[in-house]
Amino acid sequence: MAAEKDTDVNKGDRRGTVCNVVISQESETGGSGDGRPPIIFNPDFFVEKLRHERPEAFTELVLSNITRLIHLPGAEFSQLLDEEPKMPNATAAGGFFRSFNFLKRKDKGVVFGMPLTEEGIAQIYQLIVFLSKNLHVEGLFRVPGNSLRQQTLREQLNSGADIDFSSGDFHPNDVATLLKSFLGELPEPLLTQRHLHAHLKITELSLFDDLGNKTSLPDKERQIEALQLLLMLLPTANRSLLKLLLDLLYHTAKQQHKNRMSAHNLALMFAPHVIWPNNMNATDLQENLKKLNSGMAFLIKHSQKIFRAPVYLREHARLQFADTSMIHSKDDLELLSVGGSPFMSAWKRSAARVRSDSDSHAEEALRELYRHVTHHMPNSAKKKKLIRQLGKQSTPGTPVSENTTPTSKKHARSRSFGGLIKKKVLGSQPAADRRGKENISCDPVS
């Protein structure tokens, strides 16, 4: 009876840890104060919704922004376009933020040397929970454990057993070494081989001086943004385990005054198992070794940020499922400055399909678009053409009509962006009402 009680307590602790992992995705983790569990708000809800309901639009959006930040030649870019492999036993409606629920259950099956599965991650999660309670051990992940105890633990994990770490049969160094062995025996690195070149390019992102010259100082903000995007393209199982692992290493590094393991030291221990490709020859490895190790250290240091979606991605995803055609964030406007990007095309198509309940939305959108064109796009023939098109769609009092020369009457079949917006808003109203409303003046956007 006592053993059964201990097992139940152990499982309860694991469920609690799972909850903490999910809650720690954001800093706002306060409870209600009345004994009830805190409400978990997921700010990336619409991003995940877009991923699963409109995967092509999601991938197009993420890739267009990755190429905005780093340069990937054709061959390297095509690697990111590879179809994501389906995770065995994963449900069709599953996602990254839902996937932590599978840690509550496990099915029997060999986990070492096999492709990642939900069941395998659930088994390995036992190691992570135990290690998270022993971060004070000096030399954790550096000092090797006992090989016989590791073999016993490996067999138990492969059999699908619940490990009773409270018995004291295993030392933290045994568990830490076995965790590294599991990662090293995966068929491919946790970060996948097809993302290797992108990770190398991210480590090269640096700041520019006032004259536009590249400096040697890393641009951490752009590196974090690029990683946020790139990690969204990982297979679900890889991303789930990576989040659990980096959380563990992050908190290990925070206690380096006890365990003597800094983020740099941990990176040296885990880079070969997480990011090094299996087929890289010695020459290429030597050339990129510093980048790979520094990239791993960066992942550890910023693990609490890189699994969040960028703000503009959240807003764009929300707009895909909202009844509005307005742009609400500065980040969205900055994103639109990439002329001809897939995002711009997707935004135009989605805005043309959106229904609006008043004609003011059309004028608001025209003003926002005009401000973007005049202030964010470089001077070019394309910019002049867009301004002329916006002038044709403007009404008296708008900044578009005030800053453009008179143009000829718009052709009835014009399909300009402004025309599509007005057609959607005003198309179903009587002609007399439309003429009356079109004479309402609008103040320029501040």
TrEMBL record:
Cited InterPro entries: ARHGAP19_RhoGAP, Rho_GTPase_activation_prot, RhoGAP_dom
Domain Rho-GAP: 114-307
Pfam families registered for this protein in UniProt: RhoGAP
Coiled coil segments of this chain: none
GO cellular component, one term: cytoplasm
Keyword Zinc-finger in annotation: no
The keyword Chaperone is annotated on this UniProt entry: no
A GO molecular function held by the record: GTPase activator activity
Bias-annotated ranges (Polar residues): 391-407
Disordered as annotated region, ranges: 374-446
Keyword annotations of the record: GTPase activation
Gene Ontology process terms (BP): regulation of small GTPase mediated signal transduction; signal transduction
Physiological role: GTPase activator for the Rho-type GTPases by converting them to an inactive GDP-bound state.
Annotated PANTHER family: RHO GTPASE ACTIVATING PROTEIN 18,19-RELATED, RHO GTPASE-ACTIVATING PROTEIN 19
Protein name per Swiss-Prot or TrEMBL: Rho GTPase-activating protein 19
Provenance organism: Sinocyclocheilus rhinocerous
Gene label: LOC107714154
